[in-house]
Amino acid sequence: MNQIKYIYLFLFYTIGFQTITIAQDTISVTDSITSINIVKSETAHTFTDSLIIIGKTYLGLPYRTTTRAPWPLDCSGYVSMLFGNFGVSLPRSSGAIANVTQTISMKEAKPGDLIFFKGRDARKNRVGHVALIIEVSENSLKMMHSTVHKGIIIETYPDPYYYTRRFVKIGRVVL
Question: So what's the architecture of 47-172 in CATH?
Answer without folding.
Answer: Alpha-Beta Complex (3.90)
